[in-house]
Amino acid sequence: MSLQEELKGPPPAKLIVDHVSKWFQQKRQNVHALDDVSFEVAEGEFIVIVGPSGCGKSTLLDIIAGLERPDKGRVLADNQPVIGPGRHRLVMFQESALFPWLNTFGNVMFGLRLKPGLRNRERREVAKFFLHLVGLEKFMEANVHELSGGMKQRVALARALAPNPRVLLMDEPFAALDAMTREQLYGDIQQIWQKRRKTIIFVTHNVREAACLADRVVIMSPTPGRIREIFEVDHICVSWLCRHFRSGRVRPRIGFQFSSFVGSCPLDVHLSGLASDSLASFRFRIGG
């Protein structure tokens, strides 16, 4: 199999989350984590799930990955029920979870060694391709302890992408990083998604991540987690907004309720989100 054939791979998956509910049994009480959650994800779509801490975002991601089973409802990937983990759905966690005894190249190669149909030479070519994609081709032989936090997350991203999954599940992967590193990784994720067109479900409580990255934003309520609203993101408005916010021509004003992108740029842009785990809405007004 050539490198081009391996990189092409199967098309991105379509997902259906169908009336999913989940409880966790504890000694003193049962915790109702998710309640009747339903939404669909189109092939190659970038979905961001936003909600306060403890609303079941990560639990929902685990169910989609097949790491947890729902107590009610089901998840379908290309009309096939998800009953366990699979190599077509890979998870990138909050921590990089790199193997400290392997160097950068060895960590990316780890998943590829478990993928059938590839010769070792082809696995090495794929690993080098994805390290180049995340900008770490000069650090292939570096040990894990020699990498910064942002570099570790880039290695984790390359490792998740290398086996060519149809769905990439990302559980607050930038939460522990500083603001400047997060900004750089936003750009990396956007460029990689545009090049590779994977189906991505990204969990966060950061509204900026949601607005910058998503095709659609799924807003979840506090425990038990329910779908409160789903918004489509107008990336033309977001691009315009970010550009003018940096130049000082847009001034933020705090509002009180959720609203989607409404009206037409450059008149009024409403950006909904969650800040500091509390419901908030941000209205941006054009400065004259």
How would you characterize the overall build of this protein?
With 288 residues, this protein is an alpha/beta fold. The chain folds into 2 domains: 3-233, Rossmann fold, CATH 3.40.50.300; 235-288, no CATH class. The chain has 8 helices and 13 strands. The strands form 3 sheets. It has a 6-stranded mixed β-sheet, with helices on both faces. It has a 4-stranded antiparallel β-sheet with strand order 2-1-4-5, covered by helices on one side. Strands 11-13-12 form a 3-stranded antiparallel β-sheet. Strand 4 (72-77) and strand 5 form a beta hairpin. It is globular.
Task: Detail the topology: elements first, then pairings.
Blueprint: H1 3-8, E1 15-25, E2 30-41, E3 46-50, H2 57-65, E4 72-77, E5 80-81, E6 89-92, H3 104-113, H4 120-133, H5 149-161, E7 167-171, H6 179-196, E8 199-204, H7 207-213, E9 216-220, E10 227-232, H8 235-247, E11 250-255, E12 268-275, E13 278-286
Parallel strand pairs: 3-8, 3-9, 6-7, 7-8
Antiparallel strand pairs: 1-2, 1-4, 4-5, 9-10, 11-13, 12-13
Helix pairs in contact: 3-4, 3-5, 4-5
What is the name of the CATH class of the largest domain? Alpha Beta
- Total helix count? 8
Helicity, as a percent range:
25-40%
CATH superfamily placement of the largest domain: P-loop containing nucleotide triphosphate hydrolases
Counting structural domains, the number is 2
Which shape, going by the Cα principal axes? globular
- Order of helical and strand elements: HEEEHEEEHHHEHEHEEHEEE
State the secondary-structure class.
Answer: alpha/beta
Low-confidence sequence ranges? 244-288
User: Averaged pLDDT, please?
Assistant: 76
Rg estimate, integer Å: 20 Å
At CATH level 3, the topology of the largest domain is Rossmann fold
